[in-house]
Specification:
mainly beta; 6-stranded antiparallel beta sheet; 2 helices; about 10% helix
Length: about 170
């Protein structure tokens, strides 16, 4: 930003700066109000936006299609791996199956390739199982599945599919 400021000042532009969160290194110009190479009058104001070294926070909406045959009260837990390696655990509100067919849960974090482990918890018996491991991009609000992603298997592992009752033979 210092070099860009000096060049613009030398060219006769009135320079202002502001900082913003970015994935670029601290001090790197990430945006300018005049396009590079654009011809302008001396004295024109140029605003330079530079990285303050902080990663932008964001939100990813995670969508889970719930098994239609599941029965009970559940929670989905998201273990978001932070830069220091510790998990930031976020949970959905409790929900009931089969009343809900789908869960949409916002997950808040920071970073582009953040590992997130998603678990289902059966609130009735406290059993838990991993649904899958995902890579979240909080800058773009997107995610991709890295492994598993088998919702049905996870719900089965926590006892979400009660055995049908059968009558004893007479």
């Amino acid at each position: 930003v210092d070099e860009a400021f000096m060049r613009a000042d030398y060219a006769g532009l009135k320079v202002t700066t502001k900082d913003a969160a970015s994935y670029e290194p601290e001090g790197q110009v990430i945006k300018q109000s005049i396009e590079s190479g654009e011809k302008v009058e001396k004295g024109t104001e140029l605003e330079l936006t530079f990285s303050n070294g902080k990663k932008p926070d964001g939100e990813v909406e995670f969508v889970v299609d719930l098994p239609a045959e599941a029965n009970g009260r559940f929670t989905i837990a998201f273990m978001v791996q932070q830069e220091d390696g510790t998990p930031n655990i976020q949970e959905s509100p409790k929900f009931y199956c089969p009343e809900y067919a789908q869960l949409k849960q916002p997950v808040i974090g920071s970073g582009e390739n953040v590992n997130v482990t998603v678990m289902v918890i059966n609130e009735g018996n406290q059993k838990r199982a991993q649904i899958g491991t995902y890579s979240f991009n909080f800058a773009e609000g997107k995610y991709t599945c890295l492994s598993d992603g088998d919702v049905r298997r996870a719900f089965e592992a926590v006892g979400a599919f009660p055995e049908p009752e059968t009558e004893a033979p007479t």
